[in-house]
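hey
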């Protein structure tokens, strides 16, 4: 049986559906700039940093702006996003997440967050799950965006565990790539046809226990290249 020492979680789209708030905030900005930004475009922003997201939106609109203006627009989007986050309550946590995190802790498995979001600590607080994490690596603590493995390597380091004993939970392709680049096992949360590079894909955490997950991981990992 493969030893599992830690589970590292992405935030947006894994623990909570904040992708729609990101979308609404970017959409407002795009409308103001006269850019036709769709839900399909929004898929490109998953797991991508705030400034890189803005660059993608500007490229959709074929707009080139100064760095100063871009910082101003990114701040503007974040203020709108924060308005949504501050109205969010703990019942927006995705089904089964809290029980799964608590069960990991009971089994003395390390639990860390690995998110590109600079708003991650605030969101954990709103969801009332800060205490369930042994380490929080957020967008303020990394300099390289996923698919670079930095965020997950820092998580493993903070928990003092070996990379091959870590499982990453991710909803974004860039996040699954980051886990692979870190030498960690990956569990995609969402659509198997999108997250094809993940070792295992689950629809969500509802009804999931650490034992059933580890069992599934053990069944697939010997057959799959990490
Ligand atoms: C990621 C989201 O988790 O965080 C991206 O998937 C987002 O959509 C990124 O752009 C940065 O978030 P924030 O909260 O720092 O703007
Ligand atoms: Mg995500």
């Amino acid at each position: 049986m493969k030893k599992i020492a830690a589970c590292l979680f992405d935030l947006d789209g894994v623990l909570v559906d904040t992708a729609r708030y990101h979308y609404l905030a970017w959409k407002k900005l795009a409308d103001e700039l006269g850019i036709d930004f769709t839900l399909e475009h929004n898929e490109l922003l998953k797991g991508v940093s705030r400034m890189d997201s803005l660059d993608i939106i500007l490229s959709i609109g074929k707009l080139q702006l100064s760095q100063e203006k871009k910082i101003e627009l990114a701040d503007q989007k974040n203020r709108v996003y924060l308005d949504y986050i501050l109205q969010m309550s703990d019942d927006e946590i995705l089904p089964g997440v809290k029980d799964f995190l608590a069960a990991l802790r009971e089994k003395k498995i390390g639990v860390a967050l690995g998110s590109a979001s600079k708003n991650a600590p605030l969101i954990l607080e709103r969801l009332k799950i800060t205490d369930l994490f042994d380490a929080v690596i957020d967008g303020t603590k990394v300099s390289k965006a996923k698919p670079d493995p930095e965020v997950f390597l820092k998580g493993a380091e903070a928990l003092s565990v070996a990379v091959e004993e870590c499982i990453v939970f991710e909803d974004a392709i860039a996040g699954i790539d980051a886990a692979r680049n870190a030498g960690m096992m990956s569990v995609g949360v969402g659509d198997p046809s999108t997250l094809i590079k993940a070792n295992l894909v689950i629809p969500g955490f509802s009804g999931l226990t650490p034992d059933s997950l580890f069992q599934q991981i053990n069944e697939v990992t010997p057959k799959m290249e990490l």
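Strands lie at 6-9, 110-114, 135-137, 166-170, 185-189, 200-202. The first strand starts at residue 6 and ends at 9.
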